[in-house]
Amino acid sequence: MKLLVTGGAGYVGSVCAARLHESGHEVVVVDDLSTGHADAVPDGCRFVQADIAESAAALLAEGFDGVLHFAAKSLVGESMQDPSKYWWGNVVTTLALLEAMRTHRTPRLVFSSTAAVYGEPDTVPIPESAATRPTNTYGATKLAIDQAITSYATAYGMAATSLRYFNVAGAYGAFGERHTVETHLIPIVLQVALGLREQVQMFGDDWPTEDGTCVRDYIHVTDLADAHLLALEQAQPNQHGIYNLGNGTGFSVKQVVDACREVTGHPIPALVAPRREGDPASLVAASTRAQQELGWQPVRSQLSRIVIDAWEFARARQ
Ligand code: UDP
């Protein structure tokens, strides 16, 4: 297939672009490099540096079999302080992309949605049928896009899939997480092991969890990429499939820090800090729908595997 990958210079987008290219697809990456890196675009993929809203129509006029839409603003804290950047950058940009797909009859879409659409869950593990009550603007914009995709797919015949990511981590060789402003737990902890930070702050140890620290569902980025390939192959016209992607196993902040100590051999000093605003105690995916309907199976679900791959990537970049 000829595929347009938006945000293919970013973390998840570059890993997926690499896997799509290796699977024999023709990949065109479009990215404005606002947070991505030109050297993260995999070899063999054509790269167009452009604003997606401005360039989507001209690009899709070439004729594409599908779009994988990764490009997004994705910092929860920033989304609360500067919501305009998120409503315009995520929702308006995606509407422009959807319009271009409609005009040029692009048949397939895979969209990077998020567990943040659920907000504070009533039950854990979280199924796709859970109530969607996002507690931050980032999650609200992703939910609005999911809803727009449902109407576009139903009315205009697209085969669409939204993949709701839980905590994506790990790396794929030279492709990994390299945010200018790092907020995610595993890369922050590894920065301590690299000597780039003194210590890690654990946001709260009085949560209603087994060891008092927050529990999250960490999914290896290559398992995530596999789900995108399956979604592309299996989506049906006029339908919008929505799938959670996680390992179905939760790990606490303390368990993550311990796993990083074991993998790196570094003592990694960790302090207990106040809770971070907006953090739910525990977020774990029920991913049975993706397993049953897409035939997806996470194969790198061990926390040690995720940390080893993230560590190799982080060390190689030093
Ligand atoms: N966390 C932490 N210290 C940090 C960064 C994150 O204790 O420096 C915690 C955070 O409160 C959450 C978990 O680690 O419980 C995962 O946070 P992250 O930002 O990686 O992902 P999120 O779950 O917020 O999407």
From TrEMBL:
In terms of superkingdom, the source organism counts as Bacteria
Q: Which coenzymes or cofactors are required? A: NAD(+)
Q: Which GO BP terms apply?
A: galactose catabolic process via UDP-galactose, Leloir pathway
Q: Which GO terms describe its molecular function?
A: UDP-glucose 4-epimerase activity
Q: Supply the enzyme class, top level.
A: isomerase
EC assignment: the record states: 5.1.3.2
Q: Which pathway does it serve?
A: Carbohydrate metabolism; galactose metabolism
- What Gene3D superfamilies does this protein map onto? NAD(P)-binding Rossmann-like Domain, UDP-galactose 4-epimerase, domain 1
Entries under Pfam families matching the protein: Epimerase
The chemistry this enzyme catalyses reads: UDP-alpha-D-glucose = UDP-alpha-D-galactose
Cross-referenced SUPFAM superfamilies, in alphabetical order? Answer: NAD(P)-binding Rossmann-fold domains
Tell me which UniProt keywords the record has, alphabetically.
Answer: Carbohydrate metabolism, Isomerase, NAD
Query: What are the NAD-dependent epimerase/dehydratase domain coordinates in residue numbering?
Result: 4-246
Indicate the quaternary assembly.
Homodimer.
The record's similarity note reads: Belongs to the NAD(P)-dependent epimerase/dehydratase family.
| Protein name as it appears in the record | UDP-glucose 4-epimerase
Source species:
Halosaccharopolyspora lacisalsi
Taxonomic path: Bacteria, Bacillati, Actinomycetota, Actinomycetes, Pseudonocardiales
